[in-house]
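Submission sheet (multi-component)
Chains listed below:
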Amino acid sequence: METQEITVREHILQTATRLFHDQGYNLTGINQIIDEAGVAKASLYYHFPSKEDLCVAYLHRRNNTWFSALETYLKDVDDPKQRIIKTFDYRAIHLKKNHFGGCSHIKIISEMPQRGEKIDQAVILQKEKQRKFFLDLTEQAEGNRKKAASLAETIFLLFDGGTVQCQVYRDPAPLQAAKKAVVSLLNEDGKK
Amino acid sequence: METQEITVREHILQTATRLFHDQGYNLTGINQIIDEAGVAKASLYYHFPSKEDLCVAYLHRRNNTWFSALETYLKDVDDPKQRIIKTFDYRAIHLKKNHFGGCSHIKIISEMPQRGEKIDQAVILQKEKQRKFFLDLTEQAEGNRKKAASLAETIFLLFDGGTVQCQVYRDPAPLQAAKKAVVSLLNEDGKK
DNA sequence: AATAATGTAGACAGACTTGTCTGGATTCCG
DNA sequence: CGGAATCCAGACAAGTCTGTCTACATTATT
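Outcome: structure written.
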């Protein structure tokens, strides 16, 4: 109760998060996770019935922390267009902090072609949350609903395209190009 | 000499190509490749010194076959704008044929966070070839070189974004949305 | 005080991994 | 004909993988 009170479960999840992202899911063994987390194997299997369950927890964790950190980053930005644009900046910062390893969710489905239902759900959940995030903002920025929807789709495509190209080049430049394109689109829209 | 004359090396490469893409690189063992190809293990290691070398050959093969099939698909299309647009159609067809497994190159780097130099080179080579492909076409379609360059970047981002989202949803819709955005961009350009 | 929840340590099963090696067969080419 | 290139069959090494299990210790709650 005095300090942080990091539970064993939390410790496992943090270690798994680091290793899954940095080394890859298939290249990270259960034994390595328990060694680096400093817990017993039975403890891991007590909290997570299988490696796949641990993976699902990892994906949900990533989804939540990414969005809450984004909200913090945007806390003083009110204008919807600016919120969209600054989200691209945040994405670049976040990717750099993670050594340009790319999107955790995309990586997982790239590693597991025959993914299970739970993993499918977790990945699609994140993508839908991101899609809705952009859609809400374009609807605020643009009265025409149909135009807002198509604009949001384009922005989301540029967002994912920028992310994956940053992974390839290990460089934030593609996301900056994507941001430029988005700025252009949002201005176009205003001028019309 | 009578029929196709598929060499052993070719047989290995074809089997590896199918398995790497459908199952993933790390989940495909050397033993499975030789079993399904019907060759001896020593034959595989005779032609490919290591699994990584086989991977590099696989990436180059994918790169070449994708581009030559694209050229065939576009053989009757002359207008540069139409060539760009039809490339998105071709991408969707190609992804569907490969069960929406996504881009082979992106998948490989997602599976191997600490990839070697040869693999890095192969992936970047493909990306640069695609980038140049779009750049050549935008330069033909648009006199202003600077505008053409930025247009090509945006198109390329939409291309990769559409590809990765198709992988997530196992559906061609995102690439169709990307195509729509590109059509819009190319028309904008014409109107200005 | 007793029971349930949570933890440690580590052996074990059964299967898989990449790569090497032995040993011999076939085929091509000069 | 002779040697080089190519191929097959499969044992083997040394390690990895996930998940189960036994046996015991600590903590919390009722």
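Remark: Residues 77 and 83 of chain A are 6 Å apart (CA to CA).
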